[in-house]
Amino acid sequence: MKTFEFDSQIQFIGEMNHYTDEQIKNEPMLFNCDFKHAYNLGGPITGEFLDHIADHLPTEDIVVDSRVHMLMPGWFPCIPGFHHDDVPRSGRDGQPNYYNPEYKSKHIMALVNADVCPTEFALGKIKLPDVENGIYYKEWHKMVSCEVAVGNLQRLLLRGNPIVGFDWQTFHQGTRAVKGGWRWFIRVSYNTDRVKACTNEIRRQVQVYLEHPMEGW
Asked: How far apart are CA 180 and CA 115, in angstroms?
């Protein structure tokens, strides 16, 4: 069976300023925006981020997404499980195409108030088997978690207001919120076909995920 080798790494780029809950909850959320529209449609938090990273990326060919969450303990801001961002979904049954990807994306992300709900990374080199007739991340999540548990991969939780760079082979996942509060997330992507179809939208809603729904009230 074929195996895939990944070098899961991040680069620390900087730190965002502190913002109050009032400022975070009033920051516009963006979906599929180019640099110009992200700058014009976003608020002061988005503007600070884009100013900070301008020297780290090609501004003409990027796509920007952001989210604001009000979280309670135990809630997830995204579907949990170790995964990669933006591997082309041109494989069988719409699965990521690791055999012959059309592009290899790169990303810069930032969090404000990440202590509410840190993003978890698994860092290091890892070999994983192909998954026949199945879902890659459903199987690989268990394998990556085991490698973290035995120390073959380094577990890193992003806290505070970090700005980090990573690419298509960096394993990461959302975690449960550990306390209540407002959390802002943004990601800029490049080296991706997504830049060919920016729709420059303000995101009007965002969901949370609950493992045990009735415990959320």
From this structure: 10
